[in-house]
């Protein structure tokens, strides 16, 4: 372990993860404050309507958007390391153009679908208009180019600030709406403005950082001209987009399928367990966000990025084990305090799912390593197989064993995804000498 921390790249991953963790902790606490004010300041029906509106816009955004931050890191980090400003400018311009195009499609799709889904979502005439208004926030949700720029330029501190500023504004607006008795309209307007400003702040930070490195005119959209100078860019963005869409559908469908097969009460319990699981997996997500840019600065033909992956995996696994033990010891009390005694049954589901926390956290480096090796299509294939198997297993076990069966399916699904991804990762490592390392100065 002492040798691990002597590795500059490993220390950088941990440092950047701490930046992101600080922003996430503040965000979580402020988000809880905002939800508390909203829940107390509105009737349960109005509060639910506001949550549904936000969830709808986020679902549309998640399904349509491209993972442009991964593209910027994949192609921009080596260019920045080698000082190839023209290549980095092309990468940012292409990514920006892709964000604009996907945002237009997402807004149009969200607004066109809403009239057909409004009844199922429980929206009346007033809330329907507000939902249409919220669709205009989709560009700030669907755009991930600024995140990629800040990660490429190693400004994780600015990402942490942005992650704290948006929930801070939402919390302030919620406090004003609650104590000012502004009701539903006050919460809607304050949350909308906070999301709009928070999304714009990312772009402002990215623009300032590009100016700092004297990279001008990068934030000019260019889909086709820039793509001609970046071999393989379309293959990469479409593959990562499909993989993310599969992930979004898998996570969105789980609770819905439980509700269909078992009933709404079981779906509520499963949702609480899933929320708990997602929260405990946050450290791995933060490690991944700092791990990916770091290995893209390294030569995949050497053992260094792969060794870094092993060290990060073992570190995350140890962290996951500690978290699992804490959840096992205190999870029941936390659920009873936050959600009430009537939801305590969810703790039994969490106990079943605990093993998946350790396994999924240990497996976080694999996606980044496969992308580094240019194996994004292999990763997409693994995602399709894992997601399809999980959905089938979820339906079968839910039907046979109820909500406990759904928890078992989730454990098996998470574990199998990590195991299936391990095989192509090991194969890519064994064949690393044949990988092509494109130096930006050579391909520009």
From TrEMBL:
TM regions (residue ranges): 20-38, 96-118, 130-153, 189-206, 314-340, 346-366, 378-401, 407-429
Broad class of the protein's primary localization: membrane
Superkingdom of the source species: Bacteria
GO cellular component: plasma membrane
Membrane topology: Multi-pass membrane protein
Annotated PANTHER family: INNER MEMBRANE PROTEIN YGHQ, PST FAMILY PREDICTED COLANIC ACID TRANSPORTER
Protein name: Membrane protein involved in the export of O-antigen and teichoic acid
């Amino acid at each position: 372990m002492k040798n691990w921390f002597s590795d500059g790249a490993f220390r950088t991953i941990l440092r950047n993860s701490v930046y992101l963790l600080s922003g996430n902790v503040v965000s979580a606490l402020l988000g809880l404050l905002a939800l508390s004010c909203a829940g107390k300041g509105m009737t349960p029906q109005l509060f639910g309507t506001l949550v549904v509106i936000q969830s709808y816009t986020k679902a549309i955004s998640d399904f349509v958007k491209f993972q442009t931050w991964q593209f910027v890191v994949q192609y921009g980090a080596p260019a920045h390391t080698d000082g190839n400003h023209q290549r980095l400018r092309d990468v940012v311009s292409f990514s920006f153009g892709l964000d604009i195009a996907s945002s237009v499609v997402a807004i149009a799709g969200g607004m066109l679908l809403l009239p057909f889904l409004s009844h199922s979502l429980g929206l009346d005439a007033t809330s329907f208009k507000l939902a249409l208004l919220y669709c205009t926030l989709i560009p700030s949700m669907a755009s991930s180019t600024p995140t990629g720029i800040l990660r490429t330029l190693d400004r994780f501190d600015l990402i942490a600030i942005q992650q704290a500023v948006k929930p801070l504004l939402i919390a302030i607006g919620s406090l004003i709406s609650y104590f000012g008795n502004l009701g539903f309209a006050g919460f809607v307007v304050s949350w909308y403005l906070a999301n709009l400003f928070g999304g714009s702040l990312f772009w402002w930070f990215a623009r300032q950082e590009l100016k700092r490195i004297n990279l001008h005119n990068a934030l000019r959209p260019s889909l086709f001209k820039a793509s001609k100078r970046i071999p393989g860019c379309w293959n990469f963005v479409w593959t990562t987009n499909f993989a993310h869409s599969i992930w979004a559908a898998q996570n969105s469908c789980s609770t819905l399928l439980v509700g269909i097969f078992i009933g709404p009460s079981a779906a509520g319990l499963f949702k609480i367990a899933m929320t708990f699981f997602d929260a405990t997996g946050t450290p791995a997500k933060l490690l991944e966000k700092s791990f990916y840019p770091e290995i893209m600065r390294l030569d995949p033909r050497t053992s260094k990025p792969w060794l870094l992956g092993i060290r990060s995996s073992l570190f995350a696994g140890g962290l996951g084990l500690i978290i699992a033990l804490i959840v096992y010891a205190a999870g029941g009390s936390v659920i009873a305090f936050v959600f009430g005694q009537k939801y305590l049954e969810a703790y039994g589901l969490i106990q079943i799912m605990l093993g998946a926390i350790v396994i999924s956290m240990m497996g976080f480096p694999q996606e980044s390593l496969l992308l580094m090796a240019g194996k994004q299509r292999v990763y997409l294939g693994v995602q399709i197989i894992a997601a399809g198997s999980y959905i089938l297993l979820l339906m079968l076990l839910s039907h046979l064993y109820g909500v406990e069966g759904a928890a078992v399916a989730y454990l098996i699904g998470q574990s199998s995804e990590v195991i299936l991804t391990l095989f192509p990762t090991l194969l890519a490592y064994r064949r690393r000498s044949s990988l092509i390392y494109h130096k930006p100065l050579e391909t520009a």
